[in-house]
From TrEMBL:
Enzyme class, spelled out: oxidoreductase
InterPro entries named in the record: Aminoacid_DH-like_N_sf, NAD(P)-bd_dom_sf, Shikimate_DH-bd_N, Shikimate_DH_fam
Gene: aroE
Known EC number: 1.1.1.25
Domain Shikimate dehydrogenase substrate binding N-terminal, first and last residues per copy: 5-84
Organism whose genome encodes this protein: Cutibacterium avidum ATCC 25577
GO MF annotation list: NADP binding; shikimate 3-dehydrogenase (NADP+) activity
Oxidoreductase in keyword set: yes
Keywords associated with the record: Amino-acid biosynthesis, Aromatic amino acid biosynthesis, Oxidoreductase
Pathway noted in the entry: Metabolic intermediate biosynthesis; chorismate biosynthesis; chorismate from D-erythrose 4-phosphate and phosphoenolpyruvate: step 4/7
Lineage: Bacteria, Bacillati, Actinomycetota, Actinomycetes, Propionibacteriales
Residues spanning the signal sequence: none
Listed GO CC annotations: cytosol
Single biological process term from Gene Ontology: chorismate biosynthetic process
Protein name: Shikimate dehydrogenase
Amino acid sequence: MRCAVVGHPVAHSVSPAIHRAAYRVLGLDWSYDAVDVEPGGLRTFVDELDESWRGLSVTMPHKVDLSELGETDETVELLGAANTWVRRGGRTIVRNTDVTGAGAALRSRGVTEVGKVVMLGAGATARSVLAAAVQLGADEVIIMSRSRDRSTEILELANRLGIRVAWLPFESEPSRCDLMVSTVPAGSVMDRAENLVAHADAVFDVIYDPWPTPLTVAGENAGITVIDGLDLLAGQAVDQVRLMTGHDVPMDVLRSTAQNALAERARL
């Protein structure tokens, strides 16, 4: 069977390494590639897939478009975004494993309860991590982004989730929080990483390229709990592998594979 990660750009993705590692553990002779699909081109790409294709991991900028390309569930409907496309038994389903993956990532680092969240960024991944935080008890979120107009979806999501929500310009000084989540490019916070982590008990940077990011390094130096993009990548991949193959693979196997792939890339 064939699977792939689809995005734009996608050459940096380590998803091929971790899914291929899962197939080796499971003894499956499957393929998993990286396919660059231009913005707006996901539907055409999916429509042209033949029956040899089982699943897709879908990353930016296609997560919103994917939500319209298969049978959804409550989570996809709530967030308006998906990251997994699977065709099995005559059905095509789309799911969002970022939510469960973010929850698994947080718990793997000992974060089992959250109160107040500061969210840097307002896109599809930010919405997924917010939903995961609410499942861990979060009751307040501060959204920090460059445009309130482009933050409408996550602000509305917070209201639907029944938590307190406020918006601040991205350059603002954040308030004290239990968990700070960054979904923005690493360079966006490079000059203020130490100041940002000083306001948080834990920091979760979903970015893994470059790795480690300035924010995770600052968090480690400050001695607070750090959750990184490899934790999220491995956590969401566990559910993707289960959806595509019907089998489970340990999260730590996928995370170590991702870390080794990044280390190897750095040596090149």
